Amino acid sequence: MKLERVVLHEIRLPLRQAFRISSGVVHERRILLLELTAAGGATTWSECVAGATPNYSPETIDTVWLALDQWLLPRVLGTSFDGPEAVSAVLGQDVRGHRMAKAAVEMGMWALASLERGLPLADLLYLACEGRGEDDGTQSEPHPRSRVPVGLSMGIQDSPPELVEIARAGLAQGYRKLKIKIAPGRDVHYVRAVRAALGPDAPLMVDANASYSLDDAEHLALLDDFDLVMIEQPLAPTDLLRHARLQQRLATPLCLDESITGPDKVEDMLALEAGRIVNIKPGRVGGFGPSLMIHDLCSAAEVPVWCGGMLESGIGRAYNVALASLPNFTLPGDLSPSARYWERDIVDPEWTMDAEGWVRVPRERPGLGVDVDRARIIELAVRTQEYT
Ligand code: OSB
Ligand code: MG
Questions:
Q1: How far is Cα 329 from Cα 280, in angstroms, rounded to an integer?
Q2: 42 and 97 share a domain?
Q3: Quick check: bond before 349 cis, omega within 30?
Q4: How confident is the model at residue 140, as a pLDDT?
Q5: In the annotation, is 281 catalytic?
Q6: Considering 177, 179, 181, 265, which one is annotated as catalytic?
């Protein structure tokens, strides 16, 4: 396969509700979209998850644009690849970091391959992940899942009662996991209020987005009282050793998000016992190739994984839903329906969730499984650049 043309489009999409995490707030997403055309004529879209500011990861939409323009697009345009599995190594050769930029290209190549091979994206990924493990006859599922359970990620609110209302509504809508964003000073009393209002059976978790230090271990141990499914990324991204020390003092499983930049970090996590669950965001780890390796590593280690979200548009959602259909994605993903984020999404049909909290995996046709509203993207674009 060969990539012949890429057009970068930056659009702005206002969120229906502002989204606050420990390190910042977003009112409007600046979203970088890639329109990719293969030598045979196949065309598809991919989305870069980088935000406007470096508060989640060092990358931003502007560093991504630079990396694509200067280093990444020149080495993939016009290059022949045996398949999408081969793209990640070429992007990684002598270019450190810039994983979100790499992922946007690499994942687009998987979608082009799915068109060229006539397979839905979920099926293509399934074949790739199955091929990685030995077939010992214990494969539990012959196909990717046809539906994936959905979790709601709730931004930090001004008061516990406001959070309780959002959590209550989320549970009533059918969400199968409720994630409470926390930060120092906005943690235990928020969690206590939600647990008290929703009862003992509600599947609750928290995400600190790296806002604590090991000095907070005693305070974080208070969260053990609330029967949480997990505590996501309490400490700094590079603090694997300290996550291990913290995990020793907590009964609640730790889940790593920001710390897991690739399969090597999963190996470190396992060796150090720094966490028991992994959040996979394909954009954070450099694409589907590394995501598949993490999926398979975690399967072998009996560590559950789930698919995180980055407030994606319906294009990014297509990739995340396909990934989350793989066998070891056993916990609900941050895969909320389009209407939760946007007045109107840029795909047709929009992404939806049923009353039991499932999103359907589209497997009727090759590619993303949704149509992209190109005319609207052109209308919304504030910056466009073509590469051939
Ligand atoms: O840590 O998972 C996170 C959004 C921006 C940055 C970091 C995170 C998030 C989310 C969003 O939790 C989840 C979603 O897309 O619904
Ligand atoms: Mg997170």
A1: 9
A2: yes
A3: yes
A4: 55
A5: yes
A6: 181
The answer, yes or no, to whether residue 188 has pLDDT greater than 90, is yes
265 is catalytic: no
pLDDT range class, residue 107, cuts 50, 70, 90: very high
Neighbours of ion ligand 2 (CB under 5 A): 207, 232, 257
Residues 6 or more apart in contact with residue 169 via CB below 8 angstroms = none
**Using one digit for the tens of pLDDT, what is the confidence trace for 145-175?**
999 999 999 999 999 999 999 999 999 999 9
**How many independent structural domains does the chain possess?**
2
> Which ligand is nearest the CA of 277, by number?
2
Does 220 share its domain with 299? yes
C-alpha span between 308 and 153 (Å, rounded): 9
Position 193 confidence tier, pLDDT thresholds 50, 70, 90 = very high
CA distance 204 to 202: 6
29 C-alpha to center of ligand 1: Å?
A: 12
Q: Which tens digit of pLDDT belongs to each residue from 259-271? A: 999 999 999 999 9
Residue 66 CA to ligand 1 center (angstroms) comes to: 24
Residues with CB under 6 A from ligand 1: 21, 56, 153, 207, 209, 257, 308-311, 334, 336
Q: Indicate whether 66 and 139 sit together in one domain.
A: no
- Which of 150, 232, 311 to mutate for ligand 1's pocket (most ligand atoms within 8 Å of CB)? 311
Q: H or E segment at 279?
A: strand 277-280
Are residues 270 and 323 located together in one domain of the fold?
yes
Q: Which range marks the domain in which residue 78 is found?
A: 3-118+372-387
pLDDT at res. 380: 97
Does 215 lie in the same domain as 290? yes
The residues, ordered by sequence, that sit 6+ positions from 157 with a Cβ below 8 Å of its Cβ are: 20, 163, 166, 190
Question: Residue 135's pLDDT is what?
Answer: 53
pLDDT band at residue 144 under the 50/70/90 scheme: confident
Which atom of ligand 1 has the smallest separation from the CA of 341? 16
Rounded distance, CA 232 to CA 153, Å?
Answer: 12
Q: Is 104 in the same domain as 197?
A: no
Mean pLDDT of the chain: 96
